[in-house]
Sequence to fold (730 residues):
Amino acid sequence: MAVGWRGIGFTHKEIVRRMGTLLLSGNEAVALAARDVRVSLGTGYPGTPSTEVLERFSELGGPAQWAPNEKVALEVGLGAAFGGGRVLVTMKHVGVNVAADPLFTAAYTGVTGALVLLAADDPGLHSSQNEQDSRRYAVAAGIPMLEPSDSQEAYDFFREAIAISERWRTVVMLRMTTRVSHSKSRVTPKADAINPPVPHYERDIKGRVMIPAYARMAHHKLRAKIAEMAAWNETSPLNRRVDRGSDLGIIASSISYIHAREAAPQASFLKLGMTYPLPMETIRAFATSVSRCVVIEEGDPYLADALRAEGIAIESKDEMYRFGELNVHRVRRILEHDVSPEPKPVPGKPPQLCNACPHRAVFTALQRMDCIVSGDIGCYTLGVLPPFEAIDSCVCMGASIGVGLGLRHVLPEEEARRVVSVIGDSTFMHSGVPGIIEMVYNPPATGHVVIIVDNGTTAMTGLQEHPGTGRRLDRSEAHGVDFEALLRAIGVPEVHVIDPSERPSKFVKMLQTALDGNTLTVIIARRPCLLALRRMEKEEQAQPCSIGQTQA
Amino acid sequence: MNSQTKVVNVVMAGLGGQGIVKASDILAGAAHIAGYDVKKSEIHGMSQRGGSVSSDVRFGSEVFSPMVPAGEADFLLVCDPTQIDPNRHMLREGGELITPDTIPFLAELDNSEEAQRLRRSVNVALLGALSAHVDIAENAWIEAIHENLPAAVHDLNEEVFRRAQSAERDQIALTAKR
Fold:
């Protein structure tokens, strides 16, 4: 073992003394499982609640890297799995949208090795722009889906996902949620290793080159594979029954199962671990064995709709429980069909930009200049809150540039001139570059102004590196993309770099000149994130003694 | 294994940067070392930017949900006075509210250098007070403190933990006499 457990709260001595029982988050459990089955590559893009998986995997000595975005991550992962590798690709739910293009066709091509796509949903929107339910993706793409409900299952199911991926040569989705990813519970790791296959290239032109003629055949093969997996799932160890009385039976998966066990201790349960393709006969048998059968699920009525389509008689939650997370109280209410208004949560203190955050100077100026700000995803989205209230839209990663251009195209000139796109450095690397290409290709009559708020880190998700920082996931040195050179190469006529915190009036003047003119302008507002600086100082101080601490 | 089979529900709350998550890691770690089933849940992400933070820890012979149901917390530990009201609904009737104000030596701290030093470990002081109420052995607490904090602050945090624990024990004894 290259790295000790200190990083996640446990010394090696501790593991041994406790006979292998660890207290881990779901994300840490997946990372440990990935290490234990010797995953050959872990890649992804940071996104709450998925981020820690690759960080922990790296700390445990696993080969982990950040890709510029989820699409690239999945493509790199797919190539590695074509080559026979065991691969883990991680992202948050909205990242699956970005990776959807390769995903849907990867379902056709399948893999030679193993490819597990970890998609982490965020019911209740703790840190996301929407509440989408990734389970729909597994169905739409045609890939099997496993849903762990706690950290032990996160560990076990990841190993099982690898086995399923290798057996059926398919991409497998491991669907997490915020509570599964971030809650800690006890995990007993398995001693036996599943030995990884040796990477090698297998030529399979008809299976891998998705021209229409070959893709038609691949689609038929995919559907046959799904039927086989559905039959296997009828008796798979991933689903289990808890038999109590026959008055009430509950069908549940993921964290909903855990809440429901507490809310209805007397009920019988069918706990589903593999939720696509569904074991319909197992479900039908369970449903008919109880007088009342209720599906408990968070988010969309995915299970309920699927079971009803099969003619299985079940009760499901009322519409009000589609929104937000479930918990023990809400499950009790669902079981009683209680649709009375729920107590409103007492508002806490909202998050805000740090006191000395470099973004503050930018939003102070944008507010004073009464700009129409097309915003993006990151810490700087907090510029929407008082005292700034200086963001007018925020949709998805990279959208600031396209949305800003669209506004400029249609607004009357005096309004068009107030439009500014604001995007962070990590977001710019993720999906901002095509927006800049669009800007020089289809420039609005009034030109446009883009501000890249470059704090040198992916701050919102916890200070991850990206292709512009010059460091990799494990902080080793890498080539850093030169933003100025890139923008000039694309053809942006005016590229400026400034630190608005240090020179606020010069920044305002620069911005005003750009807004008044018709020239396409990108202003890079560059000043490092304070939290990132502090961490770097700490790491440098810790360097001399870190070897003794981390080698186990 | 301990005799305490009923699940103990603890909610810790404060503001980003006050060490709420760290303190709940120590509590969950101590319960784990003591042999309990334990679950812990909190929300990361946006809340790190100075906003409200709360963390749920549950331990006993078998724990299901990682989230403490509202109105079922046996203990509510709050680092920042502004966060008491938003979390009070979590406490069950007769549950114990523990804040820096309920710990005499913390409430009496002045502005001396020594006081500033101690104040930095308010989160661990709350755990010290909690430890007087729950069945987790001393060594499990100390071990969890060691595992979760850098060596340079072990002594300070052990001291704060013990002072808060003995102050709370004194208060419990006093209440019992009355």
